[in-house]
Amino acid sequence: MKSRLMWLVLGIGLTAAVMGSVWAATSGEVEVRVNARHLEDGRVEVAVQQHDGDSWGDRQRPDSRFVPAGAQANHWYSSSAVSIEVPVPEDELFCLVTHAQPGDDGFWTYKFEAMAHRWDVYHDGITVQVMHGATPQIQAEMLQQCLDDGATAVGSSLADPEPLRDVLLSAVDAGITVVTFNSGLQDYQSVGSSRHVSVNEPETGRQVGALLVERGVTGNVACVIHEARNVGLDERCDGLEEGYTNGSIERFHVTGVGDIEATKDNLRERLVGEDGEPLFGGVVTLNSDIGSAALAVVRETGADIKIATFDENREVLEAIRDGEILFSVDTVPQYQAFYALSSMLQLARTIPRILELYKVDDPHALLSQLPVLLGPRLYTSDNAREWLQTVYGTDRSVITTEVDDN
To answer: What is the C-alpha separation between 307 and 224, in angstroms, rounded?
Structure first.
């Protein structure tokens, strides 16, 4: 337990007696009481005691602690100060554990984690810890470490739910708030999560398919999966199959964000034939860095393949502005972090009261396990220039040098 020194000045009147008092500090409190005794010579001596567990501690006597025998009536006198150690409770620990892969900094570090730390700044008494586990086994170990460290609430993405189920259910059994985010919309209830924060992956996939049709894409479309065993990515492709009616959807895996050059090789082999002819009418990538890789392959080969992607980076927004990428669907990682933490805070405060007030063992019977569905935000040629300015501070295409013709 942390402690804080607090200076206490005792105001003393002629009618001073033993009093109980609670003195509050910035984020803790201590119970003290003032002692007073009338001496044989007519003076009044004062001291202070601090409550320590089940008993009162030794009397602390200020250097100036006597009210003179002939003190003026109805006049307040003050002792010199004494220091009191005020216990300050440890910050509550809120853990967020993601399935981020090495190299996927644009989504998880610069957006999701950055927002989590901003949220933390404005919430006193809470420490937010963000950890990234590239495999579900590492994620489960990180979650268990959070529980061992005394976390009040834990949040987890559910790219691969099964290996995380036991540790998350054990958290629920221990009375710890569990919230999930990102992948796992179809699975969060099975791991005991009270809230799941994400876009609606299947519905977003359907909307992307319909947009491809609206933009005139024909022929088969590739749905590129950059992470193995991520249920959310498969749900996007499932929705794409429902929404796209101008051909078939073929999904395939690439190396991923950890090795973009290898990913470009994967895309080149799958998207373009040996004769240089396109094998697909369109390609949908599920990550902005993979979208940039697909853009590089199309530029290099000159293949007539329409590109759409999920999420954004500067290159993606510039390509949308310039007509090289049709559109991007932003799954708003910043908002995922914000609403996951806000849900954790609300539930961590509410659930214990629900259990006590209604005398139930399962708070979900009253609160329900609900999704918090976000966005998504759509970037098109109509707003890409504006978002370049908003997100990155400048649109490089408008930086020009004016020449005086005179």
So the answer is: 11
Mean pLDDT on 98-110:
96
String of DSSP letters for 179-237: EEESS-TTTGGGGT-SEEEE--HHHHHHHHHHHHHHTT--S-EEEEE-STT-HHHHHHH
Q: 10 Å Cβ neighbour count for 374?
A: 20
Cβ atoms of 50 and 59 within 8 Å: the answer is: no
β-strand pairing of 44-52 with 55-56: antiparallel
pTM recorded for the entire structure: 0.79
Comparing CA positions, the residue from 78, 79, 114, 83 lying closest to residue 96 is 114
CA distance 31 to 250: 69
CB 380: neighbour CB atoms within 10 A?
15
140 Cβ partners below 8 Å, 6+ apart?
133, 163, 164, 166, 167
Chain centre to alpha carbon of residue 44 = 58
The structure tokens listed for 109 are 């570090």
Q: What is the pLDDT of residues 105-149, one digit of tens each?
A: 999 999 999 999 999 999 999 999 999 999 999 999 999 999 999
The token pair that represents 44 in the structure block:
């009044």
Answer yes or no: is pLDDT of 400 > 60: no
Residues 110 and 259: their CA atoms lie apart, in Å, by 19
Full DSSP string of 255-323: --TT-HHHHHHHHHHHHB-TTS-BS-SEEEESSHHHHHHHHHHHHHH----EEEEES--HHHHHHHHTT
Cβ 227 vs Cβ 136: under 8 Å: no
Integer Rg of the chain from CA = 31
